[in-house]
Each structure stands twice: as structure tokens, then as C-alpha cells.
Amino acid sequence: METPVEEKTVTAKDVPQRNKVWNFPFSFWISNLVELFERSAYYAVFIAITLYLTRVVGYSDIWAAWIGGIFSAGLYLLPPFSGALADRIGFRKAIILAFALLSTGYFTLGALPYKATVMPAIVILMLGGSFIKSIITGTVAKTTNHENRARAFSIFYGMVNVGSFLGKTFAYPLRLKWGLESINFYASAMTFLALIVVFIFYKNVDKTSEIKKFKEIWRSFISILTNLRLMTLILIVTGFWIIQSQLYATMPKYVLRTVGESASPEWIANVNPFVVMTTVVFITSLMSKVKAITSMTIGMFLMPVSALCMASSPLLASLTGGAELNVLGFFSAHPVTVMLIIGIIFQGLAECFISPRYLEFFSLQAPKGEEGLYMGFSHLHSFFAYLLGFGISGYLLTAYVPERTGLSAVELKTAYLHAHYVWYYFAAIGFTAAIALVIYNIVTSRKDKTPAE
Fold this sequence. Notes:
Elements: H1 15-19, H2 26-46, H3 49-57, H4 61-77, H5 79-89, H6 91-111, H7 115-142, H8 149-178, H9 180-201, H10 214-225, H11 228-244, H12 246-249, H13 251-258, H14 265-269, H15 271-286, H16 292-310, H17 313-320, E1 325-327, E2 331-333, H18 335-365, H19 371-375, H20 380-400, H21 409-415, H22 421-449
Antiparallel strand pairs: 1-2
């Protein structure tokens, strides 16, 4: 429930009132600033997490994938519960606790790269990160009203993408110059800086909403898990996000092993937020007059196309004789890099079609009168997608794109001949999910018409 505000009629001549659209409280701007720091830290570490776990800590591709999947999946499962705790202790205490946990977790991950200490550090990061997700969005909601909320969340969304872009941009030179450990120290420095900012400047926002009990949140979680209609939708959309998760699960190792250590998976991954930021407004406007399910279906069918593009590097290499290509006169790139970039462009476009409309469609599937209760777990698909997407990636990398260390010169010549097969598996998952969404829409639409008839 939002903080009550006095509503006034806005007219064309009412310039001072219109300017209030930008007149956000100080806590709003502070929360968005530290969101940028936190996202920069997270994405810098996340793009290199499986590389770090394999090359520095010593885990196999399979174990590194599962650990990375648990890390990212937990960040989508825990926020409703940590959000309830934040409501109880107050946002200020909760956000200070969150950044203290994140600073400790990232520093521990970099300073103690041992199997005995990695999982405790990951758990600390999951707890801290889950607080941030609920507190920042809660602060935005509590410090805005119906007149400026859309603009407020567009600012928040922009900060998330800028943070993502900066984090991955810095991760590349850090990895090359100071090693993978340095990325964790960079993340720790960013979150510690955020901790200082919130400690000095962040003030508690008004607590006007009812504090939810943990048993109520647990009850809504169980209700979703036992709701066949909602769980079917969640699992279908999971197929979409399984492919998107490969930007972090598969792509970094795939590029470095097939192209070489000079390749930049960090900068390649930045193509995604760039595409989303530059096209989401246009695509959302374009699809505004069609049903949410129509926009989602387009996105679902675009996603496997992205995987097929990524699998097409051998075809491009055969056409160019394996030579590097000049990309629009700006830089030269390996055929693998070129096809990954094209595939990621399709991913970004697909995300623009599906993400803005998914929450709308999800709310329509919830029981009438209980939409708010269910929306807290609307991103449950990301929990499944990152857990399964990373898990699958570990086995596929082991089978088709093995680690160079331990391979002889003879083995290296043939080790990656079928590396592109990895993307066929994800294309199959994507097409299956897209077809399943079409069937889901047909079945549910017929069922919804039955009572009226």
C-alpha cells in the first residue's frame, strides 16, 4: 500500500505541479545511486563466477555451474521473505545490513578462494542481495505516487542497466591485468562504498503498509506451487530465461576456450543491456495495443533463434575461411564472437517483447482478488531458469567445450569441433517453450470462456 498523498488536478497551465513529477524525496535518489553500485558489483562478479570457481577455486565445470546457479537462483527466491524482515526492522537497518553482508561476502570470495569457504561466502551474498531487491523497489514504491511512479521506476530500471553495463565493462580489464580474484575485490569496494552512502544519507521511509507475516508469505508460496495454471506458465517462461541465463553460465567459458584468452565475454554480454535500453520503449509502444500473450509469444519464438545464431559460427567461419571479420569498420572479430553478438541482439529484442508484458499476463492468471498475494513470487521462473540453466550448462561444457588445461596439443586440435552443439540444446528448449506457450493460451482461453457460455 502506498503512502497516502494529496491529489490535485493537473492542467496544462499548472507548471509547478507538473514539475513534481521529478520532485522525488532524497531517499529515492540515494536508493537509486546505491542500486547502481550494487548492480555494478553483482554483474562484474556474475559474468566471471563460473570462470572463478573453475580456474581459481578448482571446481569442475559441473560443480562450478551448480554453485553459480544456486547463487543466482537464490536471489530470486528469497526477496519476499527478506522483504518481510526488512518491513519489521525498518528499511534503514535492513539496507545497512544488506550492504555489510555484500561487502563481507565479496571480499571473502576473493580473499579465500577455497572450496571450504566459497559456499559460506555465496550464502552471505544471497542473503545480502535478496534484501537489496526488496528494499530498493520498496523504497521507490513508498516514495512515489500515481503521478510520478512510472517515471520513478523508469529511473530505477535505467540505474539497473547502467550498473550492469559498468560492472561487466570493468570486469574485462580487471581479469586481464590483476586476475579473476580482483573482480571480487572490486565488487566488495563498490558495495562498501554503497554502505558508507546509506549509513550517512539514507533515511527510513514511512512504514504505512501492513507488515506481512512469514507464514502468510510461505502460504502464498505453497499456493503458487500447487496452482497448476500458474506453475505451468512459470515453467513455460522458464524455458525463455534458461537461454538468457547462458550469457553468464555458458558464454564466458565458451568464448575463452574457442576464441582465446584475449576474447572479451564481459563486453560481449554488454550487447544485451545496450539492446534492451535502446529498443524497449519503442517495442513496448509498438505492442501496446495487442494482448500481452501476443507480445510474449513473439519474444518466445525469437529466443531460440538467438541460440541458433550462436550455433552458426562454423558456417560463418567456412564462408570467411576462418578469418576475423571487420564489424562495421569499428573492430575485427572472430566468427564465434560475431555470431554470439548477433544471437545476443536477438536475445535483447526477445526480452523487450516478453519482459514488460509478463507481469501483466501473470497477474491475469492469479485467482481473482489474490493478485497482490501472488505477485510477490512472479519471478519464480528466474529461480528455476538460473538453477536449471546453469546446471545444464555444466554438463554441456564438459561434453563439448572442455577446459583447455589438461588437454594435449593433439587433443586441442579436435576438442572444439562440435562446441557449437551446445547451442542446439538451448534452441530446442526455447522452441519447446514457445510452442508450449501457444498451447497454454489456447487451453486457458477455452477454459475461461466456459463459465460465460
